[in-house]
Amino acid sequence: AQKVTQAQTEISVVEKEDVTLDCVYETRDTTYYLFWYKQPPSGELVFLIRRNSFDEQNEISGRYSWNFQKSTSSFNFTITASQVVDSAVYFCALSEDRGSTLGRLYFGRGTQLTVWP
Amino acid sequence: NAGVTQTPKFRILKIGQSMTLQCTQDMNHNYMYWYRQDPGMGLKLIYYSVGAGITDKGEVPNGYNVSRSTTEDFPLRLELAAPSQTSVYFCASSYTKDRGVNTEAFFGQGTRLTVV
Predict the structure, then answer these.
(1) Are the beta carbons of A93 and A24 closer than 8 angstroms?
(2) In this structure, are strands A46-52 and A32-39 parallel, antiparallel, or unpaired?
(3) CB contacts, 8 Å: A31 with chain B
(4) What residues contact residue B91 under an 8 Å CB cut-off, 6+ apart?
(5) Subunit contact B42:A108, Cβ cutoff 8 A
(6) Rounded to a whole number, what is the distance in Å from the CA of B98 to chain A's nearest CA?
């Protein structure tokens, strides 16, 4: 079973629209970390955010915001007023905090976001 | 700050050839990883290392070998290249301890490998 599920394979929006990328995770650990990475067309992986399981506060960074809900095992990412430069593949990832999988990063399959001018 | 450096950036191999993908990091991170990225499939873990002298298999280790003789270096070896190993390879590192200290993974720029 997938530990991280990103059900949206591709999303297309027009500039200035808001868009939410979904991420659902699965773990039995009580302590874990969640991440979002951006992969622009140039191919590198850009770290966006890290969240630990004890901090359910939503976070806002400019046009980006993240909604972490343990009750639904979700860590969704919203881009407000999207721009063409936001076009990229976005990955959600999970890292567990102990046991045989300590430190291993599990990635979702990614969501390709295309923002049209 | 160099971060994580991978070489080469591109390579074309013939079936059956061998090569080593180099990866080095200068952040004194204990964990290092090798991932491969196939189109539309996200990143899959090949091997990882929790420290010098210790390596372990990930999800897709077949056809690859690794070693970790120093904290800084984590080379990935392909012994007999096959077309199925055509992919983009990423090396990454993080600082990870049990219970509560776990940085994000820092990634190299990637190596695009084609096996023909």
Answers:
(1) no
(2) antiparallel
(3) 99-100
(4) B4, B6, B21, B23, B25, B32, B33, B34, B35, B74, B76, B107, B108
(5) yes
(6) 6
DSSP codes joined into one string, B97-108 = ETTTEEPPPEE-
Q: Do residues A47 and B93 touch, judged by C-beta distance below 8 A?
A: no
β-bridge pairing A24-25 and A4-5: antiparallel
Could you tell me which of A113, A117, A116 has the C-alpha nearest to residue A19? A113
- Reported as a pLDDT band with limits 50, 70 and 90, residue B100 is low
Burial letters for A71-87: b for 16+ Cβ neighbours within 10 Å, e otherwise? eeebbbbbbeebeeebb
Which residues of chain A make contact with B5, given a CB cutoff of 8 A?
none
- What is the 8-class DSSP label of residue A72? G
**Residue B6: pLDDT over 60:** yes
pLDDT above 90 for B105? no
**Per the omega criterion (within 30 degrees of 0), is the bond before B8 cis?**
yes
> Could you say which residues from 55 to 74 on chain A have a Cβ atom under 8 Å away from some Cβ of chain B?
none
Read off the amino acid at residue B10: F
Cα–Cα distance, A9 to A82 (Å, whole number) = 18
Distance from CA of A93 to the nearest CA of B (A): 10
Chain A: residue nearest B101 by CA?
A: A97
Helix (H) or strand (E) holding A52: strand A46-52
Q: Predicted confidence band at A59 (pLDDT cuts at 50, 70, 90)?
A: confident
Amino acid at A25: Y
